[in-house]
Amino acid sequence: MTTKSLVFLPFLLLILRAEANCRSGCKLALASYYLREGTNLSYISQIFGQKTSEILKFNPSIRNQDYVEKETRISVPFTCDCLNGVFLGHTFAYTTQPGDTYKKIAQIAFSNLTTEDWVERVNVFKPTEIPNGVVINVTVNCSCGDVRVSRDYGLFLTYPLRSGESLSEVSAEAGVPAEVVRRYNPDSDFGAGSGLVFVPARDDKGSFLPLRLIRAGISGGAIAGICVGAIGGGLLVALVVYVGMYRNRRKKVGEASILPSLPSQQHQSLQFGPGGSRLEKRLESVEVDSPRGITVDKSVEFSYEELAKATHGFSLSNKIGQGGFGSVFYAQLRDEKAAIKKMDMQASKEFLAELKVRLIGYCVESSLFLVYEYIENGNLSQHLRGSGGREALSWTARVQIALDAARGLEYIHEHTVPVYIHRDVKSANILIDKNYRGKVADFGLTRLTEYGSCSLQTRLEGTFGYMSPEYAQYGDVSPKVDVYAFGVVLYELVSAKEAIVKTNEPLNESKALIALPEQKDDLRKLVDPRLADNYPLDSVYKMCQLARACTHENPQLRPSMRSIVVALITLSSSNEDWDVGSFYENQAIMHLMAGR
């Protein structure tokens, strides 16, 4: 293992050490907001989305809501959610104002309840290019209690420490013994004058609420993992971590992980949750049998020299493409055809989640290099259009490719923590191997999201014709964005037409593929002519029904990728009847098929 690759091992240890899982949040938490010059209750009400009357319930000392002295702390109620099953927090939607920076939003607008780095990492805009009037995500952490400390406290205040504050002062203000506050925050430096602590708080009736065990969110001190865990709207760096033989050859590991991480300065600025411990202090030995993250088969480490030799110095003659995060080069590597992606490290700050195409290995030198199997049979778009003299895909092959792609998307939607969204599903990003099986590729625009949360908002990227209405109009991102695009791909499999087609009408207008007629009587007009009559019309009709369900205008009524996989398995294996229309007409059936 090279010295440079060793740099990434601490991140792996931290991630594996931090078993930061939560089963549920709690209905109520409080944020301690330090009122500055120019802010008032109306302003706090606006940014927290909370009625002034609700805020006043937790601040009985305020006699006049129209006048509150500056340099006063206001307790603001909010819901403490279990975000993505990983940590406790709440993501607020904040509308940017003229002159806003991430630092100003964190320190001024949200009164140090979060940090500049944290806000930047969960949003897509560059620090110097934050538009005015856009909605961004601001995550504030919270606590629901810790049974190991006390069962007497179940309501907590997220409290940003200020210069000059001490443990005794904070505990005295809360009316809680200093030792209790310290035990909830064992690694906090109360003399530092900064950072978050979690303090037991009183409810709107002035009483301490007991801990409700069903609401106890995160067990133990494992909450530190949030610094490298998944967050709502977060854009994280995914690192391919070396696995192989330990130095003493005692244990051979068969998998490598693509795991999220953050730069080390983040570790020093935040501490999360009662019993939480700072990441730099948690480097104990860990088990590596079941790493969290996306796993790929038998990844190995290559030297830069070997990759450079195999690509003739990454020459233009070997360059075969440009992906979302860097250039792709063809190589003959150790008697195997390979595609090497040279990662742009600035782009890597947003996210890397190459999944379905087999990862052979990697190299960390001046850049991050990922070595993949070389898929020499082209992509689905080329096959459907007959590019390079390719023969028409049979109907059976098309159904199988649809199923393969659906399984890949189902995996990132349903079986990863955090949940990933591809954002650029299209026929050109479905590769076809020599056995005519489909492999989802180019995850360059992939974003993560919180399971069960509202959709994220992001800048518009992707391919026209595949964009769902809510994404194209409002920038809303959820797994249903991928479902919509996959529906367009299903229409392509039937018709072999482009996602945007030219009509034969007098004005020769462009029209979305999904807008073409699909009634059973007219269906043969839509089917790819190269199929001739070699297809079962009923099967094609069912595929169109499924495509129609996927491209429903209302994202909530589109099926999940899991239910799509079930439908395609049924379609590919039997003539059994199924009603795809029920997927979006009856949400109960949709959820049942999704296993929820």
Q: In order across it, which strands form the biggest sheet? A: 4-3-2-1-5-6
Amino-to-carboxy terminus distance: 43 Å
User: In DSSP terms, counting alpha (H) and pi (I) runs of 4 or more, how many helices?
Assistant: 20
What number of structural domains do the residues give?
Answer: 3
Structural class: alpha+beta
Return residue spans where pLDDT drops below 50 for at least 5 consecutive residues: 1-20, 214-298, 345-356, 448-454, 505-511, 584-596
Summarize model confidence as the mean pLDDT: 71
CATH superfamily of the largest domain: Transferase(Phosphotransferase) domain 1
Gyration radius, in Å: 27 Å
Query: Which CATH architecture of the largest domain is right?
Result: Orthogonal Bundle
Q: So what's the overall shape? A: elongated
Q: Largest beta sheet, briefly? A: 6 strands, mixed
What is the class of the largest domain in the CATH system? Answer: Mainly Alpha
Number of strands: 23
**What name does the CATH topology of the largest domain carry?**
Transferase(Phosphotransferase), domain 1
Query: What is the strand content?
Result: 15-25%
Estimate percent helicity.
25-40%
InterPro entries: CERK1/LYK3-like (IPR044812), Kinase-like_dom_sf (IPR011009), LysM_RLK3/10 (IPR057097), Prot_kinase_dom (IPR000719), Protein_kinase_ATP_BS (IPR017441), Ser-Thr/Tyr_kinase_cat_dom (IPR001245), Ser/Thr_kinase_AS (IPR008271)
Main location: membrane
Transmembrane segments: 222-243
Keywords: ATP-binding, Cell membrane, Disulfide bond, Kinase, Membrane, Nucleotide-binding, Receptor, Serine/threonine-protein kinase, Signal, Transferase, Transmembrane, Transmembrane helix
